Amino acid sequence: MRVFVSATSIVSGGSLNILKQFILNCKSSVDFIIAINSKLELEPEYTNKTNVSFIKVVENSRLDRVKWDFFKAKKEISKLEGDVCLVISLQNTTLNVGEIRQMVYVHQGLFLHETSWNPLVANERKYAFYKYIYPQFIFAFSKSNTQFIVQTEWMRNALINKYRVPKYNVFNFKPEIVPWSDKELLSVDTNNDELTLFYPATGEVFKNHLLLLESIKLLSHKYSLLNKSLNLKATFTLDVNPEINTHIHNYLEENPSVRQFCEFTGPISYDQVKSYYDSCDVVTFSSSIESFGLPLLEAAMLGKHVLSLDTGFAKEVLKGYEGVDFIEDDPSLWAEHLNQLLENGISHNPRFVPKYQTSWYDFFELM
């Protein structure tokens, strides 16, 4: 059995984790040919598998991606010796590969979420593209036997209900998360008198950093009226300036007193992320749109107290974990929860061991 895998736009982030997990879990009885980005350098543990070979593809723009999906992938497959009986796309979109059956791993959730975006507003234009135009590429070459794989039930339901994909063609398979060993964790120095928050997220609008910042502002005002010092430090893994994450920059310009309670590290390595996880008191997660929400699970697997926006995906990912507070989209409620933690201390929870019913094994059985 020969399987062709499309992963040409994957170079970093959550999608790279998916690609690596895919390779590690590949069935040894199947030959996989994986098309990857020419800039991607994989470690030997991924490239030394005898039944997995790689094709490097130059892809530097959206136009390159469209060309790949619409005709270059099919051309590449035609060059291969032997028949390809299945094409797997790990990057959301179907491909023009004739009658070959396809499986599509969907990890872009913007087009499935109910939130509307205005293409005339500069900082919403990108989201409007993914919401209103990108679905045309996702389903461009979908057929009656095309199967879609997602990571959460809300995405499965949205594909079925909004895009009329048959139930029997949509599957919710969870990614594999390996617990970190203690030797992988190296704490960051923190002030023991402070309540330390950590929010590992990019600066996308739907990550709702302003919700957290506004809650800190409200709490600071309350403490000021009581003539008390607010001992709190929130760490965010992003840059803030007039060109980058402008909405956050503008908020801080209008509310300069909030900045004293914040640290903006800029993008950091995964090892540094682990260190902040280990050192912080609380992991916050105010994002409203996620295909999975990995930081939620990583925090719980370390037994950290979690403050999360009250979303379906967060409740699904952390089902059974007692160390999480689900809070509505209201900064006064977030301020109230932060105040309770300051007054009552942090709960110490057993490390969470997720018991998901599906895994990569189910994915490969579907082939």
UniProtKB/TrEMBL annotation:
Record keywords: Glycosyltransferase, Transferase
EC number, UniProt record: 2.4.-.-
SUPFAM superfamilies according to UniProt: UDP-Glycosyltransferase/glycogen phosphorylase
GO molecular function (one): glycosyltransferase activity
Domain of life assignment: Bacteria
InterPro entries xref list: Glyco_trans_1 (IPR001296)
Pfam families to which the protein is assigned, alphabetical: Glycos_transf_1 (PF00534)
UniProt KW Transferase keyword: yes
Span of domain Glycosyl transferase family: 259-347
Biological process per Gene Ontology, one example term: lipopolysaccharide biosynthetic process
PANTHER family per UniProt: GLYCOSYLTRANSFERASE WBBK-RELATED
Name listed for the protein in its UniProt record: Glycosyltransferase
UniProt source species: Vibrio gelatinilyticus
